């Protein structure tokens, strides 16, 4: 028997239908493989302190993540792990990717209460992305583009007013924005140019513009993403990278269990296969 936990609607900005579809298709694939699947909404799972030996989940709420971590400490298997989900919050993710030499933009982490001028100027970036550090992006304002240091500072001040304790500032990279989805322990890896498919959460893709489709090694990208998933402790992942004209790439975002919207029919059986493989390892 496996326990499935859906994502709360507020953690699916502009992707509510997509998130629930990939979840439901995965549950169907597990059922087809012979598993008895019990599904809970995220709030009910925590409020009723539901326990399960094998859990697959898309949770994001801090209370749900803590509950899954508690169950894992008691011996449950969770895909994705509650510890991995927490690692994908922006500040932690940035630190872990940089510490493990995963290709990543030049970045600084700032407390919103401090004066970031020195750190920002030291980056010597042409432009900046300022991102909420304490959590995943939920609101349009959680990720903002800044053309210079003074705009970046204004955004950081605004975060402070909103009660956000820290921010991650990435250098703006010039190149093709490429979205990717992967599933560990399977051969599944999908990438596409979001600008060309009009696939967007907050409409920020327009800043990089239409893709030039610079050639790059998909195999190397998959390797880097699998490695990122490994160090973050996330099996089912997605994210974004920017490919430079010379074919090098840097991962600018990495998420635990995204919507897989453009490839969900191919992805769901692979996600179920990954969950099955993790269960087999515990037997």
Fold and architecture overview:
The strands form three sheets. This protein has a four-stranded parallel β-sheet, with helices on both faces. A four-stranded antiparallel β-sheet has the order 5-8-6-7, with helices on both faces. It folds into three domains: 2-83 and 265-282, Rossmann fold, CATH 3.40.50; 106-171, 2-Layer Sandwich (Dna Ligase, domain 1), CATH 3.30.1490; 176-259, D-amino Acid Aminotransferase, Chain A, domain 1 (2-Layer Sandwich), CATH 3.30.470.20. 39% of the residues lie in helices and 22% in strands. The protein has 283 residues and is α/β, with parallel strands linked by helices. The protein has helices spanning 16-32, 42-47, 62-73, 82-87, 90-99, 117-123, 149-161, 194-197, 218-232, 264-282, and strands at residues 2-5, 37-40, 54-57, 77-79, 107-111, 128-132, 143-146, 166-171, 176-183, 189-192, 236-243, 249-256. The chain contains ten helices and twelve strands.
CATH architecture of the largest domain: 3-Layer(aba) Sandwich
Number of domain units: 3
The count of DSSP E runs of length 2 or more, i.e. the number of strands, is 12
Count of runs of 4 or more consecutive helical residues? 10
Run of helices and strands: EHEHEHEHHEHEEHEEEHHEEH
CATH fold descriptor of the largest domain: Rossmann fold
Strand percentage: 15-25%
Kindly, what is the distance between the CA atoms of the first and last residues, rounded to a whole number of angstroms? Answer: 14 Å
Task: Report the C-alpha radius of gyration, rounded.
Answer: 19 Å
Q: Helix fraction?
A: 25-40%
CATH class group of the largest domain:
Alpha Beta
Envelope shape: globular
Low-confidence stretches: none
Strand order of the largest sheet: 2-1-3-4
């Amino acid at each position: 028997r496996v326990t499935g936990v859906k994502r709360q609607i507020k953690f699916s900005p502009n992707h509510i239908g997509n998130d629930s579809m990939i979840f439901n298709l995965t549950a169907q694939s597990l059922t087809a493989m012979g598993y008895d699947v019990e599904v809970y909404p995220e709030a009910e799972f925590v409020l009723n302190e539901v326990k399960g030996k094998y859990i697959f989940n898309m949770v994001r709420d801090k209370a749900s993540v803590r509950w899954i971590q508690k169950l894992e400490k008691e011996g449950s298997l969770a895909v994705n792990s509650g510890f991995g989900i927490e690692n994908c919050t922006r500040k932690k993710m940035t630190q872990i990717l940089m510490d493990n030499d995963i290709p990543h933009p030049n970045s600084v982490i700032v407390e919103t209460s401090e004066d970031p001028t020195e750190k920002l100027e030291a980056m010597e970036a042409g432009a900046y992305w300022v991102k909420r550090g304490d959590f995943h992006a939920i609101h349009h304002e959680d990720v903002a583009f800044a053309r210079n240091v003074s705009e970046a500072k204004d955004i950081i001040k605004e975060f402070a007013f909103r009660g956000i304790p820290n921010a991650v500032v990435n250098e703006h990279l010039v190149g093709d924005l490429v979205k990717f989805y992967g599933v560990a322990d399977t051969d599944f890896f999908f990438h596409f140019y979001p600008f060309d498919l009009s696939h967007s959460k907050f409409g920020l893709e327009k800043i990089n513009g239409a893709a030039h489709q610079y050639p790059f090694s998909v195999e190397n990208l998959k390797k880097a993403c699998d490695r990122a998933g490994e160090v973050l402790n996330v099996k089912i992942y997605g994210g974004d990278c920017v490919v430079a004209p010379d074919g090098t790439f840097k991962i600018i975002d990495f998420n635990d269990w995204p919507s897989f919207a453009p490839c969900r029919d191919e992805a769901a059986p692979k996600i179920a296969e990954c969950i099955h493989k993790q269960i087999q390892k515990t037997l």
